[in-house]
């Protein structure tokens, strides 16, 4: 996507939004105009920045921790057939529990601070990262297994020198998904119980009928998600290029 | 490198309960044996049995070296696909065996082997920058770097163009001289050029086929090589 295309898409969205406001004649406390939202954003810029910082940190730490845990689990599963047999059904079953339903429990266990939001983010991205990377690790070309076996490689060294580098593009695919899910985890955590963060700010603004501020926080959250998606996309591209020797 | 042993593989192989072949194969010490046969007769299975790799079937018989020692850690392998790791440069690919065993790679020796196969200028290139022939040269250098007395080759030159293939055959014959080599191939011309001994594999069993009197590698255009190749091809076509 080129910068010009992004700018055109943003202008189109703003035009549609403005058209909806004008055509429906909705009052500003139901659907504020883009200009009103921008004014609210500017007026509350410090408040929004402070809360965006909190959400950004939660998302980033959750993403890093979830990736490390997910990648380590995938490697563990690929190294041990027994662990794979025991853990894989458990992992798939864990997906039947909606993570959102756990949010109140997590708040109870980890408190109203950042901890519960980071855990929520980790939980929401753990499965896509583990699943994608594990799939990549299992798909190492059979020829490499043969070569490594004749060279006297241990299971771990095969994993380290061949399977992991070869599976980096698959890890990149998991990371791309994680980048989309991670902000959802943090914001849901903030909705359930928090005193800081963009999710908290949105609830607060909604409760006080400051819909323009709520929209402003929502737009900042969307920008944060897009920035994260682009950043992680670049990282995933690098992993892929490395694995292909480009 | 320890002195190359001769190797005997004798027994019956069955796949899913159905017999596939009966083999009585003797690889002579320090010589090239070429194993020919039609697709599906079990050539690659024999190679995998010698390598100690899983085959999916059951082998009842014995695999033994003439010196009585185990074959473990004395056999290296080169496949049709070069199996170069795309994320490592050529030099690091040549050293991969040491890394996989957790020992320190001898990079100076690897560089010398690359020079020997004519790739000294490409040591720091990535595999994707190399032609098919250059990639197989790098794979040969990696095989040599293992410095094993027994080398098993599974159609390593079959994907190359005719000219490059002939060059690679000369290079491999020279570089692997003195080792016990088993070359699995579909190509009668390749067997006629490179083999000290030709063995044909069919469902009926293994049979030794006479070679031309000259020592390998034989000239492609030598009358004896051409005659040997023609007879071999005719026999393989009749056996179909």
UniProtKB/TrEMBL annotation, chain A:
<dbReference type="GO" id="GO:0005886">
    <property type="term" value="C:plasma membrane"/>
</dbReference>
<keyword id="KW-0472">Membrane</keyword>
<comment type="similarity">
    <text>Belongs to the binding-protein-dependent transport system permease family.</text>
</comment>
<dbReference type="InterPro" id="IPR035906">
    <property type="entry name" value="MetI-like_sf"/>
</dbReference>
<feature type="transmembrane region" description="Helical">
    <location>
        <begin position="213"/>
        <end position="232"/>
    </location>
</feature>
<keyword id="KW-0812">Transmembrane</keyword>
<feature type="transmembrane region" description="Helical">
    <location>
        <begin position="59"/>
        <end position="79"/>
    </location>
</feature>
<keyword id="KW-1003">Cell membrane</keyword>
<dbReference type="InterPro" id="IPR000515">
    <property type="entry name" value="MetI-like"/>
</dbReference>
<dbReference type="Pfam" id="PF00528">
    <property type="entry name" value="BPD_transp_1"/>
</dbReference>
<feature type="transmembrane region" description="Helical">
    <location>
        <begin position="167"/>
        <end position="193"/>
    </location>
</feature>
<feature type="transmembrane region" description="Helical">
    <location>
        <begin position="86"/>
        <end position="112"/>
    </location>
</feature>
<keyword id="KW-0813">Transport</keyword>
<feature type="transmembrane region" description="Helical">
    <location>
        <begin position="118"/>
        <end position="137"/>
    </location>
</feature>
<feature type="domain" description="ABC transmembrane type-1">
    <location>
        <begin position="48"/>
        <end position="232"/>
    </location>
</feature>
<protein>
    <submittedName>
        <fullName>Putative hydroxymethylpyrimidine transport system permease protein</fullName>
    </submittedName>
</protein>
<dbReference type="GO" id="GO:0055085">
    <property type="term" value="P:transmembrane transport"/>
</dbReference>
<keyword id="KW-1133">Transmembrane helix</keyword>
From TrEMBL, chain B:
<dbReference type="InterPro" id="IPR003593">
    <property type="entry name" value="AAA+_ATPase"/>
</dbReference>
<dbReference type="InterPro" id="IPR050166">
    <property type="entry name" value="ABC_transporter_ATP-bind"/>
</dbReference>
<dbReference type="Pfam" id="PF00005">
    <property type="entry name" value="ABC_tran"/>
</dbReference>
<dbReference type="InterPro" id="IPR017871">
    <property type="entry name" value="ABC_transporter-like_CS"/>
</dbReference>
<dbReference type="GO" id="GO:0005524">
    <property type="term" value="F:ATP binding"/>
</dbReference>
<keyword id="KW-0067">ATP-binding</keyword>
<dbReference type="InterPro" id="IPR027417">
    <property type="entry name" value="P-loop_NTPase"/>
</dbReference>
<feature type="domain" description="ABC transporter">
    <location>
        <begin position="2"/>
        <end position="228"/>
    </location>
</feature>
<dbReference type="InterPro" id="IPR003439">
    <property type="entry name" value="ABC_transporter-like_ATP-bd"/>
</dbReference>
<protein>
    <submittedName>
        <fullName>Putative hydroxymethylpyrimidine transport system ATP-binding protein</fullName>
    </submittedName>
</protein>
<keyword id="KW-0813">Transport</keyword>
<comment type="similarity">
    <text>Belongs to the ABC transporter superfamily.</text>
</comment>
<dbReference type="GO" id="GO:0016887">
    <property type="term" value="F:ATP hydrolysis activity"/>
</dbReference>
<keyword id="KW-0547">Nucleotide-binding</keyword>
